[in-house]
Amino acid sequence: MTTLLETEDETMLRDAARGFVTDAAPVAKLRENRDKSRGFDPALWREMAQMGWTGVLVPDARGGADMGHRAAGILAEEMGRTLAASPFLSTAVIAATTLRDVATDRARDALGRIASGDAIYALAVDEGRKHAPERSAMQAERAGNGFRLSGAKTFVADGGSANRVLVLARTGGAPGEAEGLTLFDIDAGRAGLSRDRLDTVDSRDHARLSFDGVEATGDDVVGDVDNGLAALQTGLRAGQAAIAAELLGVAGGAYGMTVGYLKERKQFDRTIGSFQALQHRAAHLWAEIEVTASAIANAGRVLDETPQDAQLAVSLAKARAAMTVDLAVREGVQMHGGIGMTDDYDIGFYMKRARVGAEWLGDYGYHAAQVAAARGF
Amino acid sequence: MAETDAALDAFRKDIADWIEAACPASLRGRPMTEDMIVWGGRRWEFKDPAQKAWLDAATERGMTAPRWPVEYGGAGLSRAQEKIYREEMARLQAPPPLESFGLWMLGPALLAFGNEEQKKRHLPPITRGEIRWCQGYSEPGAGSDLANVQTRAEDMGDHYLVNGQKIWTSYADKADWIFALVRTDRDAPKHQGISFLLMDMETPGITTRPIRLISGKSPFCETFFDNVKVPKENLVGELNRGWDIAKYLLTHEREMIGGGARGLLGGRSLGQFLGGLDGAMDDPVTRAEAMEVEVNSLAFAMTMERYKDQAEAGQGVGNASAMLKYYGTELNKRRYELLMSAAGSEALEWQGPHGGLAPEWLRTKANSIEGGTSEVMLDIIAKRVLELPSR
């Protein structure tokens, strides 16, 4: 395997991304989104498309940059650092990874629209309070030549603004069974599909999607009928690795703010960063971030080189990221003291995004159990 | 230094053929118990004649010190070649022909700071396993505050006169020579009056006494210096600049201790060990702890790998070695708490159904103390990496 170090191209991408999000998508932008009640700024998304970020996992032939999962992780991490809001993970990572394995003209066209920034995808997979694709109960009844979708999906990231939806529904089997699920790619404006924005603490776009007899055709099926989990597998893992990378960035952003504050804030006539009680906690946090960064880099490499064997690497990355970002934001708020509790100050936004990101597509417990299973216990 | 893949492939074949021919089959694939380690030295007795044959063969080719220059008994390998050598050794399950503080610590220090005379005199016997070294750093009053060394070396004109006491000198009772930090200027600021001195343990006035630990017998000793006459040529580097060498070696040592926290349990994974304990994983508390330890261990192993990649790419690891030492040792302590808890009453005998798990568990408590405590490591990270202020 190639090393866990970044290539020159990846370092250039990271530098460019950091410069861009710092200027174009600082935390102030997220605050603005919140105050305007929008999940993201469409102008920012267009700029991301122009820079080729939306096509980071789209093949050259479809207008993408095809830089791989490690590169997608670097972009996600840098977005996490400033809490830049966009449908990048749902669209450019999950949908692009899922659709590039599908050899149909429709999928190829969809990839082109992802690269151009025209398509915005949401993944509608979970129905309960925890990530559990196989527990899907939503029905896809056969009707004529096609299907009729009925049921509800919740905690759908970018579900309020997406114009396409990847949705997992049951064509057979019972909730809890991995078999009998089918993945559909449908237009978000289709009759019978209603969307309710959830007012989540991270001020991002999440929605509950209700399907009331929504019609789908055979062409809407991604992969094979009754085998939707297989069709979604790599895309889902890519999404889990990318949210882990974003959380590493969130942890890094919170850590950076906090260490900066420790160097400025004076109490008892001393800089509070000179107190050993705080120094050791900050140093421990840095150590955790360093260790997590290795797991994130590894997940990107494994997804690029042997995606079929990526479960352990991806779950390890997400478990570590959830654990580390939780520590980073808790220490961040505490070390800021009273000002850290105020809405005027940015650190709280990190805590809120961390909580949501840690939950999305499987929390620490879900992924730690995957690691344990892969390691034989 | 561009080495073609073809040249490296040829090297791999050559070195593998050599290992197969030179390392007796009886040594290969055996578990790495204490009996398998060859430390060498004047009083060394091989436990198995095959070990002597393997050491002789390795010495002849310079393979006890693969990266050292050929003129000092090494093999002069490049970084890439050495990596291949280690990989082939692991693949063929060959034990290291020789292990010693001379190879790990003194050798690198002499290569970096020693004069030609010292390199010629001391390095070849290290590679041949003839002289065994120990390290004299800590003192009763110089633990975390290592620069507070009080063992003094007075300039007597044609020699130094050494008086004082060292503690935690591993294998001092078995070693032939010691490399030690001594105070040569009592008026200078404490970091600036220290020198790095080599002493033959047979010199009159040096005595040692083993230390019994909470885990039982240990390699650690107290070492006493009572009017010990040391030739002046045994000073390494400049007078009063010994702290530079000490720091160089400490970085080395920390990476070793941090990294040593892996690959225990006699080669079994945590899952294999716990899976072998009937019902242990049915306990939700044990299971949750095992998952977290495994997640952290895997991520830490990747971090070691990433830092190694970084070092091999010529980018220094620097103060981050303090992080490896801190994280690896704390994790290892936690892992042993888990094993003890999972094995329950079966773990409580000094030697029980799981071997010496109890003494190993107790011994891990020293991991976060020796080579710099966890608290000192956090201080280093806070000051040097995070650049937090002192006031």
UniProtKB/TrEMBL annotation, chain A:
- Per its UniProt record, what CDD domains does this chain match? ACAD (cd00567)
UniProt-listed Pfam families: Acyl-CoA_dh_1 (PF00441), Acyl-CoA_dh_M (PF02770), Acyl-CoA_dh_N (PF02771)
Which InterPro entries does the annotation name? Acyl-CoA_Oxase/DH_mid-dom, Acyl-CoA_Oxase/DH_mid-dom_sf, AcylCo_DH-like_C, AcylCo_DH/oxidase_C, AcylCoA_DH/ox_N, AcylCoA_DH/ox_N_sf, AcylCoA_DH/oxidase_NM_dom_sf
Its source organism is Lutimaribacter saemankumensis
Q: Which family does it belong to?
A: Belongs to the acyl-CoA dehydrogenase family.
Which residues belong to any copy of the Acyl-CoA dehydrogenase/oxidase N-terminal domain? 7-117
- Protein name stated in the entry: Acyl-CoA dehydrogenase
Q: Which residues form the Acyl-CoA dehydrogenase/oxidase C-terminal domain?
A: 227-373
The cofactors named for this UniProt entry are: FAD
Does Flavoprotein show up as a keyword for this record?
yes
* Domain Acyl-CoA oxidase/dehydrogenase middle positions: 138-214
A Gene Ontology molecular function term for this protein is: acyl-CoA dehydrogenase activity
Alphabetically list the UniProt keywords: FAD, Flavoprotein, Oxidoreductase
UniProtKB/TrEMBL annotation, chain B:
Per UniProt, the keywords (alphabetical) are:
FAD, Flavoprotein, Oxidoreductase
**What residues does the Acyl-CoA oxidase/dehydrogenase middle domain cover?**
134-228
Q: A Gene Ontology CC term for this entry?
A: plasma membrane
Task: Indicate the secretion signal residues.
Answer: none
Q: Gene3D superfamilies recorded for this chain?
A: Acyl-CoA dehydrogenase/oxidase, N-terminal domain, Butyryl-CoA Dehydrogenase, subunit A, domain 2, Butyryl-CoA Dehydrogenase, subunit A, domain 3
Domain (Acyl-CoA dehydrogenase/oxidase N-terminal): residue spans on this chain? 43-130
Question: Which coenzyme or cofactor does it need?
Answer: FAD
Q: Which GO terms describe its molecular function?
A: flavin adenine dinucleotide binding; oxidoreductase activity, acting on the CH-CH group of donors
Q: Where is the Acyl-CoA dehydrogenase/oxidase C-terminal domain?
A: 240-386
Mind telling me which PANTHER family this protein's record contains? ACYL-COA DEHYDROGENASE (PTHR43292), ACYL-COA DEHYDROGENASE FADE29 (PTHR43292:SF3)
Tell me the protein family, please.
Belongs to the acyl-CoA dehydrogenase family.
Listed name of the protein: Acyl-CoA dehydrogenase
Q: Which organism is it from?
A: Lutimaribacter saemankumensis
Q: Source taxonomy lineage?
A: Bacteria, Pseudomonadati, Pseudomonadota, Alphaproteobacteria, Rhodobacterales
